[in-house]
Amino acid sequence: MAEATHAVSLATTLKGLDAQGQRLRVEFQRNGDRFEHTILGVRDGEETPLLKSIEGTSDEIAPASPPFAELHRQGETVFLSGATTLGHWSMSVQATDGRLKFDVACRLKNKADWLGSTYRVVDENYLLGLEDAAQTKLQQDRLLVMPFISTDDCFPTTIQWRYSIAARK
Length: 169
Hints:
169 residues; disordered N terminus
């Protein structure tokens, strides 16, 4: 199963086309023990990297981005999953209406010092949409997308954050 997952990762991309013909593409690649992804804007046939996920290392309990070790594609949806001793992460990504929609969840065993998705901002020609329990913070060239975590949460618990990315017109 790991070989099939790795083979799929080499060409796993999702493309979204909007009414104006602008597109976004997300490309997943294996880097060491996990998948990273790059979001590219496509305009007039030219691709420009917009955001690149910042990954952690295998010894980090709460890495900068979820540690996705498995990737599966079903039609126009990519599903990813992974785990550390802190919890189990899952994410689905869909390309619809010129947007990439990310739905991320973590089943936490204990309270975490950090939980979220971190990107390096390569080009600012993107629009970020936040849904449900998500918040964002921009630190220098880093974009952090984080869930709201209540101090009343009992553990174990599942925390979820959703966001979408579109190309700036």
